[in-house]
Structure formats: structure tokens, C-alpha cells
Amino acid sequence: MSATTPTEPAEAAVPRRTLRDMSRAALESANRYWQPIVKTMRFGARGAPVSMGALVLLWVLALVTGSVWRQSEYVVRHFAVGIVPFEHWRIWTPLSAGLWAPTLFGYLGATVLIFFVAAPIERKIGSTRFAIAAVSTQILGALLGLGLAVAAKLFDESWGFRLHVGTALGPTTWIVGVAMVASSRMDTLWRRRIRVGLIALLLTLFLFGGHLQDVIRLAAAFVGLVLGPWIVGRSSRGKVTTGTRREGRVLVAIIVAASALGPALAALSPNAIGPFAVLRELFRGIAYTTEEVRDICDATPGSLDCRRGELELRLGGVGPTILSLMPSLFLLVVSDGLRRGRRFAWFAAVAGQVLLLAMSLLNYVNRFVGADESDWVFYDFESATAYRTIVPFLTPLAVLVVLVATRRFFDVRAPRGTYTRLAAVMAALTAGLAAIYVLGGLAARNAFDHTPTLSGLLADFPERLIPPVYLQWLDPRFLPDGAVATFLYEWTGVAFWLVASVLVLGTFLVPAYGAETDATGRARELLRRSGGTALSWMTTWRGNRYWFAADGASFVAYRVVGGVAITTGDPVGPRDRLRDNVVAFAEFASSSGWSLCYYSVSVELKEIADDLGWGAIQVAEETVLDLTKLAFTGKRFQDVRTSINRAKKSGVEAEWTTFHTAPIEIRDQIVAISEEWVADKGMPEMGFTLGGLDEVDDVEVRCLIAVDADRHVHGVTSWLPVYRDGVVVGWTLDFMRRRSDGFRPTMEFLIASAALLLKDEGAEFVSLSGAPLAKVGDAASQDALPAPDALTGALDRLLEVLGAALEPVYGFRSLLAFKSKFQPDYVPMYMVFADPAALPSIGNAIGRAYLPEVSLGQGMKLVRTIIDR
Q1: Contacts (Cβ under 8 Å, ≥6 apart) of 350
Q2: Among 81, 253, 423, 791, which is disulfide-ready with 339 (CB 3.0 to 4.6 Å)?
Q3: Is 25 helix (H, G, I), strand (E, B) or coil?
Q4: Which UniProt keywords apply (predicted)?
């Protein structure tokens, strides 16, 4: 007994300790989950007395008036804003309406918005300006919204009457208003995104929900847009509209997504009254039972009541409702493809809008042409006004116009064969679902109101894939009258759309490196095996086409602009085959009817061109750092060492990443910095041999970012690999962006850090790339060159003038001077051409290659810049 007694407590203590450990681990896990949220809320509360005061007042008033759990009639009567309260001289309601919320969910939502939207804005613009913005947008937004509500009666008596008797409560009015006010001082990217996204959301609520609160919120947003520059001033970036292609894709995707969500939002809102709320009939109907429909149709076959019952039976139930929402889900998937710039997504979106237009027209013809008011089955409003009649046409038509106007943004193609495989899988999916539907229908033939045949089930299957509202002009062959039949009848289409959406989304996730991705993949493999110049990775960029040598060991990347074939650097392949490849590609270009220009090529290729009797002009200067001898010592590198020391004191560190794998908060900051830089130029990004974010988003391109302790990105550089015999021996600087209000010597710090880090990794050199239309003036070397002919000399002088004219806009010469801080070796880069008579067209082609999307206004701005010089 004495021997066992001491052991019993020890054995019993083991599970207790384990339980304590498990509890402690659970608490630690919960703490890790909630800590960021609590930290964010604490951070939101600091420095925002007006926001926090408004939040406290909101809940105090809610508790005092008892409007937390249910809407208080007293609050609505005395403090909600509306036309009727104003008619009874309750003129304080435009302000008081922002101090209550209609429901508990309204209070909870307002609390979240105050913590995560209002409070950060107050810290950003200051409490005084925040208070002015909140009060002014609340009052003026309410007054403007009431004016719009009065005007609504002029063109829609039904909607106008509902607005007239309606009231509005909620702090979202002033929260939206201050967000729009604050956007005036935001950086370019977020100013554009917040304005487009918020207005798209508010317009969707206005057009589809249509309640007085929706009208007032939208009015407050426009008031904030107008008052913003007066209250907080304009951004230091000024009024800019220029954006990158990447950002244009995002904005178009937002518009398409809003157009898809609007009708669904109206369908899910039981009291939607907006001018576009008629589109909710695309999603929902009144549930009829099969027995009710059968009795009606047996008694009066072909009658309107029978017809109505059949159509509503199709729309009733969970399955038909979800099936009606599937096109919206598919358009959301397509929106993600548009965000990624996928060409297929653009075609799919266009096809979807055209189909919606066609269906709307067919519905219109079926409902209204030759029909009297008693035949209108779905438009269950008091009156079918003109705008309600044309509403189904307006949304897809407007989106279609936007898509056509921005079609140039969507040029990213998936690898060859992607959509062939998709078509095969979709065909198999359709065949499989058809087999399941037909065989299941035959097995459950007694579960339909009419016994279906094999041919009848086959003919009916395509209709199961179509949202039921678009079948209203077709009489159903049979209707389900049992669980199995109902499942097959209602859910076959849902399964089809869900799988199709997942498959299409998968094609958007497939990496796409270039316009001809199969050829790009082949070019990448050759580049890794044989290597090339420091700029050879640019041959893999989108927009290039490829010529492959007969032996398959070499290639030339080129693009054809205005009948001129312009190469991207030297031919890639064995260097002992360089001359053969130069001549072979020249013959290929000539046989295709193109003039030839080898652009940004090496001295070695220029020497081959001299032997062939071709002309050459220096167009850039490459700067190279030999890492084997690199040491930032001595007076010459004082600025470089200073940047490194200042970064250390400021807590700024250099960190390697890739854009593809970086956390989303890092990627967003990189995008914001890039958009800000483009906006400052007032001109689109240059392409060709100058990469942007699309080129940075490559798994083999490394990014070195400057980040501080708070994970704020101060600058970013991208580095392209340089291969030799399958091994990376060097890296080439491409993308350079710095936050305007960040750590000032960011670029010096990043380039110096990259050189030191890459040296430690064993790289032989880094190229700081070339600066177009800029070169080191070396009189001795210029005297050594043969005298150019008149046309070549004229083009050389033109490039010199153009480089000087573009300096205020793009700063190529300043960039070259900046790189001189690192004491690089200078390597000239040339443009080589076979026919001097083609120089005018070559010059035009190069300009269009660098600026393919310059608008007329931007071109005029560039001309004015040149003239002002």
C-alpha cells in the first residue's frame, strides 16, 4: 500500500498538467489571433478623439432611446431625415440622422467602420478638419439627397413616392463623406481606387436598393468629393489621371464586378425599390407547388395563370435561385481574370454582356411587343415607365462600352493549349451531366408531372443549364414532382456553373510570361542553357515575338512596329554562332517585308555589322559593376557609404523577396509606389526595354526592398538573372521606384546593398542596365568612330535632341549620372540597321515601341515640354 500510494498522485497529475498545457496553448493561439485585431483597434482609437466621441455618443443614444434591438418609432419620427420630417419643420434631422443606426447590425457595422475607417482618417487629416468634413458632408449630403428624392418623382412616380415617405438613419453617411474628403490628399493609387470603388458601390446601392439612405449616402460622397480640396487640400501629386495598364485592369474589374453584384444585391433585398431593382426578377420568384400549377393548368390550360404558375415554379426554390445567381458568380470569376489582364477574360466578359443584351431584348419582345398590361408577368410594379422598360439594356450596354474602350489593357494570354484543354474538359463535363440527367430522369420518370421520354430528356437538358428567368418564353416540357426529379431538374445547372467557374479560374492562375507563351518558354530554356548579354532576360517580356535558328540552339526576340522588326538586344545562343544568327534573322526579316533594326546590342554585334557594311548609332550606355573587385571604400564612394549608414540609423533594412511570393501588404505598397511614380510623370510608363510591374511579377525576378521596423516599404528594385551555361552569374537592375515621402537615399542604399549581398552569394557582376537616349560624352571615342553619312548623322542628332527633351519627363540622363556614384564600367549599346533609307521609319518604330499607348493629350503635353525647353 505504501509503495503504490505515492505513485497515484503523480500519475493523476500527468493529465492535469497536459490539460493545463493544452489550455495555455489554446489561450496563446487565441491571443495570437486576436492580438493583431486588438492592436489595430487600439491604434485606431489613439489620436482620434472626434471619432471615438462619436462612437460613444452613438451607443449612448442607442441605449437611452432603446433602439439597439429594434427600430425606435420615437427616433424615426423625431431624428430620422426625410422629406416628410422636413415638411413638418424638423430641420435638425439632416444632422441628427447621423447619430443613430436603424438596427443592431447597423450599430455593429458603424462601430467597425469608425474604428477602421473614420479613426485612421482623423489621425491623417487632423481632428478639426475631420469634424468639419463629417458635419458638412452629413448635412449637405442629406439636403442634396432630399433634393434628388424630390426630383425622382418627376420621372418615376412610384419610386419618387417611396422616397417621399421614406426616412434615413445611419452614420455611414458622414463616414462615406469623410472618406471622400480625405481622398483628396491621398496618393494616386489609393485616391483612384477608393473613389472608383466607393462610387461604384454607392451607385450600385442607389440603382438597385434605391432607398432614401442609399440616395443620401451617394449624395454625401459627391459632396465630399467637391469639398475635399477645400477642407484638406489637394495631394502633393496634384491632379493626375495617368495610370498604369495594371491599374486600369483593376478599375475595369471593379466595374464588371459591380455590374454582376448589383442585380444579386437587389434580389437579396426584399424591399429594393431602386430604378434598377426590376432586375431582381432575374433572380427570384414566388414559390408555387407543383400540385397548384397542375390544378390551374388542368382547369385552364394555356391561360395566363397557368403560364404564371409554370414560370414562377421554375424560379421558386433554392436551386433555381442559386442557378439564377450563377452568371453573377461567373462574372466575378471573369473579373479576377480582367484584374490579371487576361485576354480570355475580356472575351468572356464581352460575350457575357452581349448575351445579356440579347436576352434582355428577347425578354422585351416577349413581354411588351403586342402585349397589353395584363400580360406582364414579372414587372410587378405599379407602372412600367420608360426607364424601367430599358433598364435591362442599360447595365450590359454600359459595361460593354467600358470593355471595348479598354480592350488594349487585356493582352495577357495563357500558355498555348490552355483553352483547348478547357474546352475538352467542359465538353466532358457537359456530356457527363447530360448522362446523369437523362439516366436519372429515366430512372425517376414517375417523379415528373408528365412522363419524360429519352428524347424529351435530351432536348430538355440544355435548358437545365440556363438561368430559369431566360426560359420564360418557352413552355416547360415537364416539371418535377418528387425529390429525385427536383434535384436533377434544379441542381444540374448549378453543378455545371460551379465547375465551369472553378475551371475558368484555374486558367487565370496559370502563369503567362508573354504573348506567345509556348515560344517564351522555349526561349527561357535556351537562355538558361546558353546565356546571353546582361539584357537578355528582357527577351522574355510580353510583346516580343521569336525567331528560332534552324539548329534550334539560338533565337532572336523582336517586335514588328510599323513594318520595322526591332530586336530586343543580341541574338541569344552560342556566341560563336552570333554572326550566322545575325545574318539569318536579317534574311528572315527581309523575306517578311520588314525593315530591320537590331536595338540595344553589344559592341561585338556592332563589329559584325561594320563588317557587313551596315550602319550603327549609339543609343545607350550600360553601367556594370565588377563584384570581384567591389569595395565601397575611399572618397569616391562617400555618398554610397552615407546612404548605408543613414539607413542603419533609421531602422531601414534591405530585404530580398519576389513580387510573386511577397505578402499582400508588401505587394500593395509596391504597387502604390509605382502608381505614384507614374502619376508624377503625367505620361504612361515606357515599355520595350524598360520594365514595369508586369515584368517584375516573374518568379525568376528578384526584388530588393527597403523596409523599416513597421514594414513600410520605402523603395524597391528588381533584378533580372543573367545566365551562363545554366548558372546565374550576374544580375541586371531593371525596376526602380522610391516612395516620395520615404527614406531619401533609398536607391543608393538598395543598389549598394544588392551589390554587396550578391557578391556574398558568388555573383560575378551586376549590371545597372542602360539608360535610353543617354551616354557618356567621350570626345576621344567619338573621334575614333568613322564619319557617319548625312542621314545617320541627322538621326544621331535627332536622338540627342529627343533625349534632352525627354529629360524633364523621364530623366534618363539624370539616371545615368546617378549610376556614376557607383563608379561603374561603361559599356556602349548600339542600334544597328542594314538600310539607312529606313531610318525615319526606324525612329518612328522605336518611339512607338517605348510609348505604345501615348494618348493625343499626352503627346501634346510631351510636345509642349519639348517646346518649353
Answers
A1: 400, 403, 404
A2: 253
A3: helix
A4: Cell membrane, Membrane, Transmembrane, Transmembrane helix
Element spanning 561, H or E: strand 555-561
A 10 A CB-CB count for 35 gives: 10
What the block records as the C-alpha cell of 17 is 498538467
Name residues of the chain where pLDDT drops below 50.
1-19, 22, 26, 29-30, 32-34, 36-37, 40, 240-241, 282-286, 370-384, 514-515, 778-787, 807-808, 863, 865-869
Residue 153 neighbours by CB distance under 10 Å:
16
φ, ψ of residue 727 to 5 degrees: the values are: -125, 140
Q: Report the residue count for the chain.
A: 869
**Fold (CATH) for 625-770:** Aminopeptidase (3.40.630)
Work out the angle at residue 404's Cα, subtended by the Cα atoms of residues 399 and 410, and round it to the nearest 5 degrees: 105
Q: Who's near 747: CB < 8 A, 6+ residues apart?
A: 715, 717, 736, 738, 818
Nearest by Cα to 231 from 303, 173, 177, 311: 177
What pLDDT score does 376 carry? 41
Residue in the structure block whose three cell numbers are 415528373: 448
The sign of the torsion formed by the CA atoms of 642, 644, 650, 652 equals positive
Helix (H, G, I), strand (E, B) or coil at 415: coil
What residue has cell string 528588381?
Answer: 718
Angle between helices 343-368 and 483-509 (to 10 degrees): 140
So what's the pLDDT on residue 383? Answer: 45
Q: At what angle do helices 304-315 and 318-339 cross, to 10 degrees?
A: 60
pLDDT of the residue at 652: 93
Helix (H) or strand (E) holding 730: strand 727-738
Provide the pLDDT for residue 389.
61
Q: What distance in Å separates the CA atoms of residue 260 and residue 265, rounded to the nearest whole number?
A: 9
- For residue 28, the model assigns a pLDDT of 52
Identify the CA nearest to 828 among candidates 531, 624, 687. 624
Rounded to two decimals, what is the model's pTM? 0.65
pLDDT in tens, 644-685: 999 999 999 999 999 988 998 898 889 888 877 776 665 667
- In three-state secondary structure terms, 167 is strand
Grid coordinates given for 588:
528572315
Q: What does the alpha-carbon distance between residue 752 and residue 812 come to, in Å, rounded to a whole number?
A: 20
Residue 617 pairs with which residues in a beta bridge?
831
d(CA 308, CA 316): 12
- Burial (Cβ within 10 Å: 0-12, 13-18, ≥19) of residue 88: exposed
235: left (phi over 0), alpha (psi -120 to 50) or beta: beta
Residue 822 CA to chain centroid, in angstroms? 37
Report the CATH fold assignment for 517-617+787-795+835-868.
Answer: Aminopeptidase (3.40.630)
Cell numbers found for residue 693: 510591374
Q: Give me the architecture of the 46-237 domain, per CATH.
A: Up-down Bundle (1.20)
In whole angstroms, what is the distance from residue 387 CA to residue 364 CA? 13
Q: Looking up cell 485612421, which residue turns up?
A: 120
How many Å apart are CA 499 and CA 426, to the nearest integer?
Answer: 9
**DSSP assignment letter at 342:** B
Asked if 620 contacts 767 with a C-beta cutoff of 8 angstroms, the reply is: no
Distance between the two ends of the chain, CA-based, in angstroms? 105
Q: What's the grid cell of residue 576?
A: 560563336
Residue 126, CB half-sphere, CA atoms under 13 Å: how many?
A: 7
Per-residue cell: 204: 450600385
Is 774 strand, coil or helix? coil
CA atoms lying within 13 Å on the CB side of residue 570: 27
| Angstrom distance (rounded) from CA 56 to CA 59 | 5
Identify which of 557, 753, 541, 760 has the alpha carbon closest to the alpha carbon of residue 656. 753
